[in-house]
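Can't paste images in this forum, so I'm doing it all in text. The chain is below; anyone willing to post the predicted C-alpha cells underneath?
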Amino acid sequence: MAEFSSNHLGIGSFYLEALANETYTAKIKLAQNTELHKTLPKAKQVGFNIVVDNIQRDSVYINIHTNKATLTTTDKDTFTLFIHKDGQSKTIPLSINDVHISQAIAKKEIFNGINTVTLFKNRVPIAERMFFNEYFLRKQRLL
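Text version of the structure:
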C-alpha cells in the first residue's frame, strides 16, 4: 500500500514499483467522505520513465529509468530528449546503455517557466514530464 497527499497547489507524487501480474487500485477520497476506486493499468515488462530533479539552482537533471529487459531490446534505437516551450525547443541526443541515465542541463540554456521534456525513441515520443524553470526570475533579497 502506498499513500500520498498533495501540497497546497494540488501537486503530489509517490513511488510504486509495480510487480508483474499484480492488480493495483487507486482509492481516492473526495469531498463529503466520498471515495472513488479506480483499477490501474497493468504494469508493462518493458519501458522508460522520466524523473526530473529540479532542486539545484543552476541545473536541472533529467533522469531516465528503465530495466534490463528493456535494454536488451534497444541496441539499434536512437534516443533524443526534446525540451520545448511556446514554439522554442532544444534537442539532446542520448545514449541509453544503462538502467539509470542522468542528463544535466544548465537552467540558463532552457526556457523560463513551464518546460516540457519528451523522450523520443526512433522519433516516436515514449515518455514526457513537465517542470518549472525559475532560473530567470528575479530574486527578492530579504533583509
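The mean pLDDT is 89. Helices lie at 68-71.
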